[in-house]
Amino acid sequence: FHSPPPPFFFFFFFFFFYTPRIQLRLAGEKRKHNEGRVEVFYEGEWGTVCDDDFTIHAAQVVCRELGYFEAVSWSPSSKYGKGEGRIWFDNVRCTGNERSLAQCESNGIGVSDCKHTEDVGVVCSDKRIPGFKFSLNIQVEDVRIRPILSTYRKRIPVTEGYVEVKDGGKWKQVCDDEWTQMNSRVICGMFGFPGDKRYNTRVYKMFARRRKQTYWDYSINCTGNEAHLSSCKLGHTLAIKANSTCEQGSPVVVSCVPGRAFAPAPMAGYKKAFRQEQPLVRLRGGAVVGEGRVEVLKNGEWGTICDDSWNLVAATVVCRELGFGSAKEALSGGQLGQGMGPVHMNEVKCSGFEKSVTECPFSMDKDSEGCSHEEDAGVRCNVPAMGFQQRLRLSGGRNPFEGRVEVLKERNGSLVWGTVCGEGWGIMEAMVVCRQLGLGFASHAFQETWNWPGAVNADSVVMSGVRCAGTEMSLSHCLHHGEYLSCPKGGGRFAAGVSSAPDLVLNPQVVEQTTYLEDRPMFMLQCAYEENCLGSTSSSTPANSYRRLLRFSSQIHNNGQSDFRPKASRESWVWHDCHRHYHSMEVFTHYDLLSNNGTKVAEGHKASFCLEDSECDEGIEKRYECANFGEQGITLGCWDTYRHDIDCQWVDITDVKPGDYIFQIVINPNYEVAETDYTNNIVKCRCRYDGHRIWMYNCHIGKQTFMNYASSH
User: Fold this and answer.
1) Is the separation of the CB atoms in 66 and 23 below 8 Å?
2) Residue 215: its pLDDT value, please?
3) 157 preceded by cis ω (within 30°)?
4) How far apart are CA 293 and CA 63, in angstroms?
5) What are 229-258's pLDDT values in tens digits?
6) I need a surface site. Which of 221, 229, 516, 571 has the fewest CB within 10 A?
7) DSSP, residue by residue, 140-164
């Protein structure tokens, strides 16, 4: 009567009431530390997770278990490279509310019929869960280098001291029993230093004997090519004696070697920015120190690197080579602007220990000729904390991105805030201010700041004769008069000021929703013909014949940090009879119809614009208007709409054959006005024309590969 329960009952009972204890990490060929292949540590072995049945809910559980706020996306088919070892989970089905991946339904731990080509990856948000208690992933804010010896306490940046981890709200030392030089290399890289060096162990051992230490419970095992401590393996729990000392050792000390641009100078505080004499690698297009498009010198010509297989390991080689630490991010898709010249390298595969990215294996295939500058690779590097931002501020502006420049200077033995003399102040000096404050590119430099009343107690001039090359990390690195100031007009209203850049973004949905064809007779297009808005064959078109026009509206938003103002002064604006107003920018947009391989099929034209505020976000007033020779620009938080029924707001497709095309709009194409981000200045749409009608679809900002879209439809 009481027959024994079937075997599967025990299996169900075991997994229902027992959740395996696992640890997670993100590994593989990744571009940020918050993305990668999902790896599981169980019973002393790292393994992977299969992509079968995996969903965004499972990604949510993984990211939250790792201490991130949420999941952004997930990727099947070993996007981050094939893992090794066991595949610990298969057919994972999560609701999204589980506290651990091990609590989700699955075939059971270690039960899988998958291969490593099916390893799953996730991208987590940058935002961390506040107060999250990490078992494996360690936040960079939870690690520090604490200077111990008096010679290092006053130095900026801090290069030597105890490695300490914040655990349970308390800073704890790390036992050096199992510490390796590779661990030191990773720590130094995180804090912006390219390498580490030996230090005087005897002094630190004497110091450790005099103080009681509180040790962290874990050891760390890094291979040395990790960009971040969170990518290292966590070692076993150390057996800490009751007296809180290491059995055979003492607290871990690191001594980092700064890049020469950041080397502390004994007297001056900082050395002037260092330039290599014959560099093979450089960064271009970055708004702040340590970021940019990667360019390499080959056969006497600078060129770029294609982003295929570009990852954190290769980016870190670049960063260390240039005197920075490890990479925070490996950028793809020409995010920091498109370069010029040849694409020198593709499919770069670095081990992480090369002295230069030019030593890494890479592809020389003819396939790399398919790489365009839309695929230029870039980096964002960890840089040392120099305290530059604390010595400079913008005061009196309407927002944090503009204002009078005020600097902290030593006067009569005390530090005081004061102004910079406006005489000779220009865009190069403004660029350095914005870089020092981490605000991106400068838009304008002001020699008078009467409309920005700064702090009253900071009116006095404390810096004059400033001349910058534009590449300096701090205003103090620029040439200036030193203690002997010369500023005939004085400070106050004649102090220097800056505003950082706007950011124009074209609304792709408006383009998609307003597109249509119009057959317009030539006699109604005389004005447009004179402004070169028609195809070249229009010159032989009879007055009673038609031109076929692809019409659309464009709505251009300013989402940046300041107003967008034309480069040209009012007296050089051009009157346009067609529109009955002045145009302040002769080339503001490019309109083009392209074949699927990027060749122009319609003679696109360069449209000139009058810039004004058509509409604004709630609470923002319009400031610019074209009528009556008014001031031109686009206010921060407003947008300029060029309606489809305005002359020249079209592409002439009279001579285009039916087919599938790409429609492309580029705003501010010649970079005449500085912006915080040029990567969102382009809109592309897929376009189908049957000779009578036109369909515009899949409009989007920036680069996107249409091949994937086409193959899935």
Assistant:
1) no
2) 85
3) yes
4) 30
5) 777 777 655 554 444 557 667 899 999 999
6) 571
7) GGGEEEE--SHHHHT-SS--EEEEE
Across 42-46, 115-119, 259-263, which has the greatest mean pLDDT? Answer: 115-119
Contacts by 517-520, CB closer than 8 A, 24 or more apart: 517/548, 517/549, 517/550, 517/551, 517/653, 517/693, 517/694, 518/548, 518/549, 518/551, 518/650, 519/546, 519/547, 519/548, 519/549, 520/546, 520/547, 520/549
> Which amino acid makes up residue 218?
Y
Strands (E), 59-213: 71-75, 87-89, 121-124, 143-146, 160-167, 170-173, 195-196
* Residue closest to 332 by CA, chosen among 303, 309, 313: 309
Distance CA 108, CA 310 (A): 35
Question: Which H helix or E strand runs over 186?
Answer: helix 181-190
CA 261 to CA 391: how far, in whole Å? 18
Closest CA to 373 of 348, 331, 343, 347: 343
Tell me the one-letter amino acid at 197: K
Read off the pTM. Answer: 0.59
Q: Please say whether the dihedral angle defined by the alpha carbons of residues 559, 562, 567 and 570, taken in this order, is positive or negative.
A: positive
Bridge partners of residue 38, in order along the sequence: 26
How does the average pLDDT of the chain come out, rounded? 81
Distances (CA, A) of 94 to 60, 90, 91, 424: 9, 12, 10, 63
In this structure, what are the phi and psi dihedrals at residue 356, rounded to the nearest 5 degrees? -145, 150
DSSP E strands, 225-334 = 233-237, 253-257, 281-284, 291-298, 301-305, 327-331
pLDDT range class, residue 177, cuts 50, 70, 90 = confident
CA distance 443 to 497: 11
Cα 84 to Cα 27: distance, rounded to the nearest angstrom? 11
Is 558:613 a contact under the CB 8 Å cutoff?
no
CA distance from start to end of the chain: 60
DSSP conformation letters of 265-291: PTTTSSPPPP--SS-SEEEES-SSTTE
In whole angstroms, what is the distance from residue 315 CA to residue 62 CA?
26
User: Side-chain half-sphere of 440: how many Cα atoms within 13 Å?
Assistant: 19
